[in-house]
Amino acid sequence: MDNAAQFTFADLIAPLGAEQFFSDYWETKPLHLAREQQRHYARLISVADVETMLREHDIRHPGIRLAKAGRYLAPDTYSTDMHYGDDLFRGVPDLDTVYAHYRTGATVILPALHRTWTPLNRLCSAMEAELNHVVHTNLYMTPAGTSGFRAHYDAHEVFVLQIDGRKHWRVYEPPLLLPHHTQPFSPAGYVLPPPMFEIDLAPGDVLYLPRGYVHDTVTSDVHSVHVTLGISVYTWVELIAEALAACKERVDLRRALPPGFANSAQAAAHLASSLHEVLGMLQAFVETRTVIETFKAKVLPGTVKLRGHFKPQASTIGADTRLYRLPSGRFDVSREAGQIALTFDGKSMTLPGYVGEAIETITQSESFLVRDLEAALGTEGSLTLAHALFLVGFVTAQPDATIA
C-alpha cells in the first residue's frame, strides 16, 4: 500500500479534529459518528478482504476463535492439528465447520488482526507513535439473528469501526469511572440500568467508548462485520510504579520490614507511621527526571512491530551495500567501562570499545556504505559489524520511511 493512501487516526475520527476529540471526548464521554460513507474504511479493510484471508491465508488458532452465547467455543470443535511428516501444524481451522458454526449463531473473531493485516498494522503502529499508548485490534463477524457478548465494560479505550452489515448497540453509564486494566468488569451483583442511548452502526460509522462504559449488542436481522480498535492506556499508576521501582536503589528501602510486623496492632501502627514518613520523603528519594526518561524509554518503542519485507532477489550484504540507520530519536549511544552501549526500540546491544569510530560514522548520517567502516575496522571487521547491526534491526537495507 502506498504511504499516501494509508488510513490514519485523522481518518478514524473525521470530520472531528484531534484537538476537539481529545478535549471533548477522550476519557470523558462516548462518541458516535454516522458518516453515510459505506466505503470509509476501504483503505483499511473490507468484507472481501476478510473473505479472502479466511479462504486463502493460513489463519490458525488463536488467530481465529468462535464464540456463542457469550462463551468461546473449544478450539477442537472447529480446528485440528495437521500432521506433515514428523511435523505438526497446530490449530488449523476447517472452514466448512467454522461456517457451520457461524450459520448456527457463532461469532467469528480474528484476534490481534493488526499482527498480520498490513493496513491495520500500520494504523496501530502510527497511533502508538502518536499517542504513546498500546494499540491493538480484533475483528468480529456476527451472523444475522444473534446477539453478541453479554453486557460488559472494557478496561481500555474502544473504537468500533463498522465494516459491513449493521449492528444495534446499547450503551450504559459506567459503574466504575476509568477502570484500571487490573479492574476488569465483574457481573457479580451488577444490575443492568436503562441504557444511556441506543444506536445502529452502519458501514463507515465509528463508535468511541471510554473505558468503563457498559455496552451490549442485541439481536439483528442483518449480519455484522466490525473491527474494534483498543487503546490500553498508561496511567499515573504506571508512572508512579516506575518511581517506586527506583526506590530499590536505596539500601535503607531495601531493608526487610520489622519481624512480626503483621502480628500486632502496635507493630502495624509503627509500620504505618514509618510508611507515612517514607512517603513524605519520596520526592527527595527519587530523581523525577530519571524516572520519566526511564519510563519514556519503555514506552516510545511501542508494542506493534511493523510487517517486514522479504525479497528473494536480494543479495548478501557486502562492502558496497548501502545501509540505513534508525532515525534520530529512536536510538542512544553511550560509552561505559570501555564498551559501547547501543539502545534502540526497546533493545540494547553492547559492543567492544574499538568499534566506537565506526559507530560514530554510522550515526553521523542517515546512510552509509559498509566500506565506509573499513578505515576503522578493516574489511572483515566492517562486514561483521554491519551484519550484526542488520540482524538486530538497527540498520536496514532501505530508508525507514519506506518500511513504515
How is this structure best summarized?
By secondary structure, the protein is of the alpha+beta class. The chain is 30% helix and 25% strand.
Explain the overall architecture:
The protein is of the alpha+beta class and 404 residues long. The chain folds into three domains: 3-232, Cupin (Jelly Rolls), CATH 2.60.120.650; 236-298, no CATH class; 322-403, Malonyl-Coenzyme A Acyl Carrier Protein, domain 2, CATH 3.40.366. Helix content is 30%, strand content 25%. An eight-stranded antiparallel beta sheet has the order 1-11-8-13-7-6-2-3. It starts with 8 loop residues before the first helix and ends with a helix.
Which terms summarize this structure?
404 residues; alpha+beta; Jelly Rolls; Malonyl-Coenzyme A Acyl Carrier Protein, domain 2; 3 domains; three-stranded antiparallel beta sheet; globular
How would you write the strand order of the largest sheet?
1-11-8-13-7-6-2-3
Q: What gap, in angstroms, lies between the N and C termini?
A: 10 Å
Give the CATH level 1 class of the largest domain. Mainly Beta
Sheet/helix structural class: alpha+beta
How would the global form be characterised? globular
Q: Helices and strands, in N-to-C order?
A: HHEHEEEEHEHEEEEEEEHHHEEEEHEHEH
Beta percentage is 25-35%
CATH topology value of the largest domain: Jelly Rolls
Largest sheet: 8 strands, antiparallel
Count of helices? Answer: 11
Tally of separate domains: 3
Integer-rounded radius of gyration: 26 Å
Chain-averaged pLDDT: 92
CATH superfamily of the largest domain: Cupin
Low-confidence runs of at least 5 consecutive residues: none
The helical percent reads 25-40%
CATH-defined architecture of the largest domain? Sandwich
How many strand elements? 19
